[in-house]
């Protein structure tokens, strides 16, 4: 059975090959990236990466967050911080 090309394989013995394939795949695609990210795929990235994922929209979203959630009640996951009033 061929290993799946998703970066995951149930057989731990394939981990080095899957890791190498995943890194090579990322390296090949990264130059064509627009620079954003799908925020639901982010894990423990810092706030800079979250901001970069939204490209030029983060400041606008932060102002909206200030208007509708100034106390940052909805702060779980990749949080958009409310802008300063």
Automatic annotation (TrEMBL):
TM region positions: none
Gene3D superfamilies named in the record: 3.30.465.10, 3.40.462.20
Pfam families for this protein: BBE (PF08031)
Residue ranges constituting the Berberine/berberine-like domain according to the UniProt record: 37-80
Protein name per its UniProtKB record: BBE domain-containing protein
Organism: Prauserella salsuginis
């Amino acid at each position: 059975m061929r290993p799946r090309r998703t970066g995951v394989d149930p057989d731990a013995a394939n981990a080095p090959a899957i890791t190498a394939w995943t890194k090579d795949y990322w390296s090949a695609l990264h130059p064509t990236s627009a620079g954003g990210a799908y925020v639901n795929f982010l894990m423990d990235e810092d706030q800079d990466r979250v901001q970069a994922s939204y490209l030029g929209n983060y400041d606008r979203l932060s102002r909206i967050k200030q208007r509708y959630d100034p106390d940052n009640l909805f702060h779980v996951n990749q949080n958009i911080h409310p802008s300063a009033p």
